[in-house]
Amino acid sequence: MNAYRSHTCGQLTAQDAGNEIRLSGWVHRVRDHGGVLFIDLRDHYGITQVIADSDSPAFAALERLRAETVIRIDGRVKLRDASLVNPKLPTGEIEVYATAVEVLGPADELPLPVFGDQDYPEETRLAYRFLDLRRESLHNNMMLRSKVIRSIRNRMWDSGFTEFQTPIITASSPEGARDFLVPSRLHPGKFYALPQAPQQFKQLIMVAGFDRYFQIAPCFRDEDPRADRSPTDFYQLDVEMSFVEQKDVFAAVQPVIQGLFEEFGGGRRVDADWPLIPYVESLRKYGTDKPDLRNPIEMQDVSNHFRGSGFGIFAKLLEQDGTEVRAIPAPTGGSRKFADRMNAFAQGQGLPGMGYIFWRKDEGGATEAAGPIAKALGPDKTEAIRTQLGLGEGDAAFFLGGKPSDFEAVAGRARTEIGRELKLIDEKQFKFAWIVDFPMYERTDDGKIDFSHNPFSMPQGGLEALNGDPLKVHAYQYDLACNGYELISGGIRNHTPEIMFKAFEIAGYPASEVEKRFGGMVKAFRYGAPPHGGCAAGIDRIVMLLADEQNIREVIMFPMNQRAEDTMMGAPSEPTNEQMRDLRLRALPKDA
């Protein structure tokens, strides 16, 4: 017999009754029923119930055990009484009568419970992550993550892609976030960077003649943390293909992602119709470039009904260039109580409130509009709004006005909140959409032109398009949205040096700077580069959706906290004087 176990804690069944066996694991729970001890013994594979009475040679030792102590049990498998069978456990038909016990790893008093799924302060959970990971829900999340990654690899290989690894220590590259820099000991005063993504390398793989590449790639970005984003590092499915257009990338990616969600979605419906929604349309209808299409609400421009109307606030606002009034329909939201709740939500978003109209039945049985805006507009205009929005009695509409760039984000959050409050969102499905035609450039707060997305994307229209207004140039850039999250970002790449130099020049990078920062790629493009494109899918976010979690840290084995700290390992830490001398660095005081 093995020194530690003959079976795992998820393996024994009724067919093993009468056998002498050995188990090892953690003491999950101890119950004392008046001279009879029941111990749930847990390992990676499951739980087995161990029993001991006063006649057992192991009774005295078992009685002294703390939760989470690691023990070895020798014993005999017994069938449970029919009334005591636990159908929720694979081992629920049996129990093990303990005849011997050995403590393999004693446990101190626990800083947080492992049994059950009680809420506990996140700082404590992260500081004792090795204990937190023993909890059933988190353990299941990590196993789900592992299975998802294995399935991705299998699906990509089956689709004709080949896996390659790219460097971790590399040069800095503008990917839209801050780099983590690594000082060089051999080259004092110079720094490597951890890759924000394998962007340049995967393009060079295409130039080198490898046709369909993928990688489960670690990426590093010095970002402010959010619930759906890790502040330091994350993993992505990185993909690149040669001789493709946008539609070819979509055709290659959809079966992989759709199959993944069908396999691990827990029976939730996976919509196979993935519409293509232009970026501008997505902002106009949903207030975001990652819409949750489970929510049927679509915002509409209702400016014509307010222009020159009796509702002075919006009428005056619409006299300014670039302004509009947008309506957010709220089916079944036609009550003053609900309108007050949404006003409170808007105030929590920093707005004075949201205008509204709701429709109800008047004393004569006809549908009438109610609310301050309705009184100011009059029956004809409110009826026109109701008809345009397709609303009726018992429904409402909320209104926001101004320059769309100033209110779209809040409008998008209000749309989500209305859908959630009115229970319009089907929680038992996954709905996908490709967001396409992203703007190539944007104007920054200081008035400069900069890339709005990936700087390596091909502009639609090529070099000719770059000779006009840069803010009107669209890129072959696309995202995949699912249930309100961005899962994939990608693009058809700019593989022509002339177009690349012009694209960067518009964003303020002279040719000399492009040569300095991206010399390897520019040089490669001069020796025959194929048209190519690809994308990257966030694995952490995919698993978060599949696990039905709201916080990405619940699906990462050892995440940082909200302040980008690893409180378990003590990172970041101060370097030693010797390390600083080797690197020829000196740290400035915090207030310098």
Describe the structure.
The chain is of the alpha+beta class and 592 residues long. It is 30% helix and 25% strand. The chain has an eight-stranded mixed beta sheet, with helices on both faces. Helix 4 (136-158) packs antiparallel against helix 6, helix 4 crosses helix 18 and helix 16 (511-517) crosses helix 17 (519-525). It is globular. The model has no long low-confidence stretch (mean pLDDT 94).
Range of helix content? 25-40%
Contiguous low-pLDDT stretches (5 residues minimum) are none
Principal-axis shape: globular
Distance between the termini: 65 Å
Q: Decide which structural class fits the backbone.
A: alpha+beta
Instruction: Give Rg in angstroms.
Output: 30 Å
How many helices does DSSP assign?
19
Average pLDDT taken over every residue: 94
Widest sheet: strand ordering: 6-9-10-24-23-22-19-12
Number of DSSP E strands: 24
The largest sheet, given as strand count, sense and whether it forms a barrel, is:
8 strands, mixed
Which strand-content bin applies to the residues?
A: 15-25%
